[in-house]
Amino acid sequence: MPGLRIERMELEHLDEVLEIERASFPTPWLRQAFLSELCNNPVAHYYVGLVDDRVVGYGGMWVILDEAHITTVAVRPDFRGRYIGERLVRHLLAEARGLGAKRATLEVRSSNTAAQSLYRKLGFASRGVRKGYYSDTNEDAVIMWCTLENELPRSRGQAAAWKRGRGKGAARSGD
Ligand SMILES: CC(C)(COP(=O)(O)OP(=O)(O)OC[C@H]1O[C@@H](n2cnc3c(N)ncnc32)[C@H](O)[C@@H]1OP(=O)(O)O)[C@@H](O)C(=O)NCCC(=O)NCCS
User: How far apart are CA 50 and CA 85, in angstroms?
Assistant: First the structure.
């Protein structure tokens, strides 16, 4: 997605984040949940994707010792399919690695094949199921893990730059 900037989530982003949240999840987080993550949780790291200063997606994680736990990722419905989700998750994983994380985990609804494909593309693999984890629909959670000790699979842009002989430095880390 040309023109996508990834920045730390700030309080001023919350109105737009909540709009995306409501459009993305059956039981959306309320403002208080994001406030608590941004203001009171020292292990929380949240980012927004911006296009022309509009929030088009966001993602967050907790990093505790050498483990990152991705807590949320969502993209505005009209901006999906443009590699914004992928850029956000790559960014989270690169930041997590920079903070010393050696592996990352997340839970995803068993019916959410789009998100599972995204995570698998970035090196996650399914490592278990939590039965009935989502109380709103009684749906199972697939637990996925990824090791951060190896390079992430390259994005298409990075791969193209590499082939053109510009090497690793052609793309910013995490994008
Ligand atoms: C999951 C979500 C974040 C993906 O964001 P996105 O920006 O639309 O996805 P991207 O364009 O970055 O897609 C990257 C990869 O994800 C996978 N993917 C994304 N959408 C997909 C779909 N509808 N069906 C199958 N695979 C899909 C593909 O592997 C894709 O790569 P490819 O096109 O090279 O095969 C987005 O659909 C969303 O916000 N969903 C609602 C919230 C949600 O479910 N969040 C995850 C909670 S665990």
Answer: 12
For residue 74, the ligand 1 atom closest to its alpha carbon is: 39
Cα-to-centroid distance, 99 and ligand 1 (Å): 25
Cβ-contact 122, 105 below 8 angstroms? no
CATH of the domain at 32: 3.40.630.30
Number of domains in the chain: 1
User: Which pTM does this prediction carry?
Assistant: 0.90
Q: What is the dihedral of CA 67, 23, 123, 7, to 10 degrees?
A: -60
At 56-84, the pLDDT tens digits run 999 999 999 999 999 999 999 999 999 99
Is residue 9 in a domain? yes
CA of 72 to the centre of ligand 1 (A): 13
Q: Give the range of the structural domain holding residue 89, as residue numbers without chain letter.
A: 4-170
pLDDT at position 1 is 76
Residue-wise pLDDT for 13-69, tens only, equals 999 999 999 999 999 999 999 999 999 999 999 999 999 999 999 999 999 999 999
Domain-embedded: residue 8: yes
Residue 175 domain-assigned? no
- Is it the case that residue 161 has pLDDT exceeding 70? no
Average pLDDT, the chain: 90
Ligand 1 atom having least distance to the Cα of 118: 16
